[in-house]
Amino acid sequence: MGKRTLSELRDEIDVLDKKIQLLIGNRAQLVAKVAQVKKASDDSSVFYRPEREAQVLRSIIKRNNSLLKDKDMAYIFRQIMSACLALEQPLNIAYLGPEGTFTQEAALKHFGHSVSTLDCVSIDDIFHQVEKGNAHYGVVPIENSSNGMIGATVDMLYSQNLKICGEVEIAIQHQLMSANQSQGITVIYAHSQALNQCQRWLNNNYPNTELKSVASNALAACIVKDEVGAAAIASEVALDLYGLERIAKNIEDKAGNVTRFLILGKENISTSFENISTSFEGKTSLLVVIKHESGTLCDLLEPFKQQGINMIQLEKHPIPGVKWEYLFLIDIEGHKDNKKVKLALTEVASRVLKVNVLGSYPIAVL
Ligand SMILES: C=C(O[C@@H]1C=C(C(=O)O)C=C[C@H]1O)C(=O)O
To answer: Which part of the chain is the ACT domain (predicted)?
Structure first.
């Protein structure tokens, strides 16, 4: 058989598209049936199952031997699942607004594009909107690879009762932008995190320019749309969204700048796998307060060693409102219902002043 012509190849693509469309339709029908099963169950209001979604995406990546990159193949399935979940329950997701922030990018990466979003004015506001039931879930930054923990999020995790039910990572690349490049720049607006992440570049390139910190990068982009002589540091998405011109590309000081975001909800993630505690590829986050005495930190850590549990993270953070007192934010491997994790947590609880299990959730897949 000779080489196929363009129209022959396109005919073959049409045949495949028809099959794919039919299969996606069949999948949607099954998901609608899943919704019925969930409605009849105990936790009938919880349709979103992050542990199952993570399992689906991991399997997609594992068996991908196509020409498409893993991340692109997973992205396609991410969108299919998003549309399917919307059949069960249309989700509303709170994020740090306005449109065009990295938090919105994180929300859409994690939930896909079939959700509606609620833009919030601050990290505190995101927690409150979820708490009040105005959004099903919220997305907040927790940690940046160059700058460390986001204190405002840790403060709220300490004082609020929301549960962590997922995490997502976003590569952060900052763009310097303005409405009109021909004007000299007298002021640069950005979120304080972005100013920190671009500090060296700003010192080298705009040593005498005023830097103004605002609530989000997208807000900075929005402000400079109408301000002569002003520039903003924001994302590629904000650059397009607000119709601005790029002055400089990727100005972050460190390559590989990544921010990790948490997904917050009101309930612990459902244990829809019978063997969740053993099959779960995830972590558990804890907030712990210990006595200010010799040996108490060792006492806190010992039970994890005894049970052979790997600790992913140990962060010290000031207790909100209490001078020179600290809490510890700890991430360990495994689900809180896993036998060894359970034993360790019971032992930890008997050794510390306070332990708050923030949630068990799948490790970021993409
Ligand atoms: C279909 C389900 O419900 C939702 C949709 C999913 C999907 O489209 O695969 C996966 C998990 C849930 O968020 C399920 O729980 O299995």
So the answer is: 285-360
